[in-house]
Amino acid sequence: MKVLVLNCGSSSLKYQIINMENETLLAKGVAERIGIEGSFVKHEPVDKDKTVIEVALHNHKEAIKVVLDALQDKDHGVVSTLDEINAVGHRVVHAGEKFSGSVMITQEVIDALEECSDLAPLHNPPNLMGIYACQEILAEVPMVGVFDTAFHQTMPKSSYLYALPYELYEKYKIRRYGFHGTSHKYVAIKTAELLEKPLETLKLVTCHLGNGASMAAVMNGKSIDTTMGFTPLEGLAMGTRCGDLDPAIISYIMEKEGLDINAVNNIMNKKSGVLGISGVSSDFRDIENAAAQDNERAQVALEIFYKRVTKYIGAYAAEMGGLDAVVFTAGLGENSDTARKEICKTLAFMGANIDDSKNDNLRGKEAIISTDDSTVKIVLMPTNEELMIARETKALIS
């Protein structure tokens, strides 16, 4: 079975095609600047030359057509005909409370996703564009929706409800949803395999740390709490997002700066986080370099980020009544030995001691990086959301 995985953004389309008989990646790529001048598709087949296709892409349907042509190309293709594509797995950001797991895409599902669009106005509409395009181009191919929010639907009310009037939840579904669920689920499963223990017996804190960052308390294989909330703005300080703050600050900034709510939302989502504190960049690599050159604001930005991650590890360990492993994943979690070391340096009290000889210069590899005598393991686990989507798709199609 070959599964095409699609992740549609507002002006981009990431894709992978995976042979699920042995979970082998056949090709991956990205269509950039959809609907914008200078659009192109970067196509990377495994064991063949990469290619960049410069072509006008007015919408997602045109982008998907170019991708499918590339997949069949005699020089750069990986399938002979589109009949070899057995299913399409779509990454969808927000399912609200509609779905607690992946689903076959039907008209009923599409209608439900349309209803959720006001909860994720930047993400769900382009996700739906990809679904509509595939309905036209690959009409006979079954499709599956895999939701970022689904893994966190196991949270209890005490974790997902905000202390607001209950009727606001009943009327508008204002609650914590959580995101990056596909990644948190994947690394939790893989960590159980690495530790050679049943997932259903483990208490894990999974740390998806990148430009967008979130953490989850995974107890007995289920998410019971997570840092992102009603939107991806809550929780950790991120690349450009502020994370947790006193909500009264919003009206205070509006009054003092003479801004409307849209302008303040723009500040909190795109101008805050480590970018706003450091004034250097939203890229942690740039900030680490600046901090190493004694840039005080860069140093403070990193300290704030590290401290919030450590704080949530402690909080989630207390919430679960113990901890078996802290798991690092995503761009920063997988590739920054400094970040892992700084986050874990005060965790010795709970039996988590990082081993510098195992951690130093380690990037993107499965590994236990705690000392051998640590009762709480520290794990580096590369994420693979596309493979998780393909697995979910295969399971439903089968």
From TrEMBL:
InterPro entries: Ac/propionate_kinase, Aliphatic_acid_kin_short-chain, Aliphatic_acid_kinase_CS, ATPase_NBD. ATP binds at K14, H208, L209, G210, N211, G212, D283, F284, R285, G331, L332, G333, E334, N335. Substrate binds at R91. The record marks H180, R241 as: Transition state stabilizer. Mg(2+) binds at N7, E385. Keywords: ATP-binding, Cytoplasm, Kinase, Magnesium, Metal-binding, Nucleotide-binding, Transferase. Its EC number is 2.7.2.1. Pathway: Metabolic intermediate biosynthesis; acetyl-CoA biosynthesis; acetyl-CoA from acetate: step 1/2. It comes from the Bacteria. The keyword Amino-acid biosynthesis does not apply. It catalyses: acetate + ATP = acetyl phosphate + ADP. GO terms for molecular function: acetate kinase activity; ATP binding; magnesium ion binding. Its cofactor is Mg(2+); Mn(2+). GO terms for biological process: acetate metabolic process; acetyl-CoA biosynthetic process. One of its GO terms (cellular component) is cytoplasm. Mg(2+). Can also accept Mn(2+). The keyword Ribonucleoprotein does not apply. The active site is at D148. HAMAP family: Acetate_kinase. Catalyzes the formation of acetyl phosphate from acetate and ATP. Can also catalyze the reverse reaction. Belongs to the acetokinase family. This is Acetate kinase. It comes from Anoxynatronum buryatiense. The gene is ackA.
